[in-house]
Specification:
single chain; alpha+beta; 6-stranded antiparallel sheet; 5-stranded antiparallel sheet; Protein kinase domain-containing protein; protein kinase activity; Kinase-like_dom_sf; receptor; ATP binding
């Protein structure tokens, strides 16, 4: 069978039936097909008789078929026989990074998580001697199964006839372009990939934080280290996909969607993805290392039963105590009051009141950009335990030995007397925090008035003597363990002042 006879209904290898023509380019055609043996859709590339690189494509596909990383498109078959050449691979369903960026804004860390997965998968391919050379937002997919797929390793370059004198650098910069796009919605490359071009500042590429508000400082720095090949935050440029993967390893990853009970043929589709919710919300699971970002540890059924029993016992004890006190009071004879008696005990002191801050911000006076995730700061004073402010993630508890501390600073609007500050922290040992108070948002002006060397859970920091100031700083000097790295987190913070203040 010659390639000119390939049309809908054609069967390849007595197994793969071509159904719909998806795209055609340069003599290569992508089809939606059916694997009649396994009853599932597959993607099939066929090639016209004039296509000049059939042998290179088949060899590249066979090499890619040996890759084992599940985030790389799986190649099922590749052949060139009897005048017919084809490549069969899995048919991926979901939304590409391009779809996500053009349909709705995505959070910076979620976009970066996609690129982090791609970097790890590409590092695996490089270790096997294979490269991509054509990393664009349409080749990175968040699948309907809640996983990440990087399409076209080795095969795309062979089909397009791409080569590079330095393929490692080319793929590393490609990851940098994907990260830039994920953070800004702009494309920092020459080709038209469906996104607006990245803005320039006097001929120089603007950094992500210059383009889009709310990009975390550490992601901005990583992008510059990859794409601009510049050292940032005291760290060198990133020159390989493995280095990019390591730098992005601190990014929180999306949780895969629950496994569907539907047959596989309903879970797979094409490289022209459907529209769907790209970040499904799974049923909460109890984390192994304390609360995850923005979450509390969940309570299991046994714990709920135990808690119910305890509550009932406490209620019974309170009721019995009240009945006993009432009975004794009823049987006690009245006591005559002597007006000449000495003075009675003074009334108990008034309970401190909570003072709401005017604003909050991440405070990093020793860092390059002087900020630490300021976009999350308001979550620590919104009264919701389901939200949080957190530091960047560091490689050691001592903040990667990059600085002596980092924290969250509150502006109270005017000087107030601070009775104490109550923090809600993760249940993870290892955090050291200081309470600092002063009249200026400057580290040298903020005096340390209380400390806790192993803070976790609910923590109250109480000054040893009266202290007044407009600015209240919770200063982390040591961070607790978090998902293989170290990060400080504050779910809630309450500032208390004397009622008369």
């Amino acid at each position: 069978m010659s390639m000119s006879a390939v049309e809908p209904g054609t069967r390849l290898a007595n197994r793969f039936r071509l159904e719909d023509r998806v795209t055609e380019f340069g003599g290569a055609t992508l089809w939606k097909a059916i694997d009649e043996i396994l009853a599932r859709p597959v993607a099939v590339h066929t090639f016209s008789p004039e296509f000049p690189r059939v042998n290179e494509v088949v060899l590249a596909a066979r090499a890619a078929s040996r890759l084992t990383d599940p985030r790389l498109t799986q190649v099922f078959d590749a052949a060139d026989q009897d005048g017919t050449a084809y490549v069969v691979s899995e048919w991926v369903s979901g939304e590409s990074l391009l779809d996500l960026l053009t349909s709705r804004p995505i959070e910076p860390e979620r976009g970066a998580a996609l690129v982090a997965e791609a970097a790890e998968a590409l590092a695996h391919a490089h270790a096997a001697g294979l490269t991509h050379l054509h990393l664009t937002p349409s080749r990175l997919v968040w699948t309907s199964g809640g996983t990440v797929k990087l399409l076209g390793v080795a095969v795309d370059a062979a089909i397009l006839g791409l080569s590079s004198d330095d393929p490692v650098r080319e793929d590393t910069e490609g990851l940098g372009r994907l990260l830039y796009a994920a953070l800004t919605g702009h494309w920092p490359g020459d080709m038209d990939c469906g996104l607006p071009p990245a803005p320039l500042d006097y001929g120089r590429l603007c950094t992500p934080r210059q383009v889009t508000a709310g990009v975390p400082g550490y992601l901005d720095a990583i992008t510059c280290r990859v794409l601009l090949q510049e050292p940032r935050r005291g760290q060198p440029p990133l020159t390989t996909p493995a280095e990019v993967a390591e730098a992005l390893s601190e990014v929180p990853r999306p949780t895969p969607a629950p496994i569907s009970s539907a047959p596989p043929s309903l879970n797979l589709r094409s490289e022209a993805p459907d529209t769907m919710d790209p970040w499904p919300t799974p049923s909460p699971q109890p984390p192994a290392q304390g609360p995850q970002h923005g979450q509390r540890s969940q309570t299991g059924p046994a714990s709920k039963v135990l808690l119910t029993i305890i509550v009932l016992l406490v209620m019974a004890a309170v009721g019995l105590g009240a009945w006993t006190v009432g009975k004794n009071l009823g049987n006690t004879p009245p006591v005559a009051h002597n007006s000449s008696a000495g003075p009675t005990s003074s009334a108990p002191s008034a309970k401190p009141v909570t003072v709401k801050p005017v604003s909050a911000t991440g405070f990093d006076p020793l860092g390059d950009d002087k900020e630490e995730n300021p976009e999350y700061a308001s979550a620590a004073i919104d009264g919701k335990s389901s939200t949080d402010w957190h530091t960047d993630t560091y490689k050691s508890a001592e903040l990667g030995r990059l600085k002596s501390g980092v924290g969250l600073i509150l502006d109270m609007g005017k000087p107030i007397q601070v009775s104490n500050v109550t923090l809600s922290l993760p249940n993870a040992d290892g955090a050291s925090v200081e309470l600092r108070v002063g009249d200026a948002a400057d580290l040298s002006s903020l005096k340390s008035v209380a400390k806790n060397e192993n803070a976790s859970g609910s923590v109250t920091l109480t000054p040893s003597k009266a202290v007044t100031g407009q600015y209240v700083l919770v200063w982390f000097t040591r961070l607790p363990y978090f998902e293989g790295k170290y990060r400080g987190t504050i779910y809630d913070i309450l500032v208390h002042s004397p009622a008369s203040a």
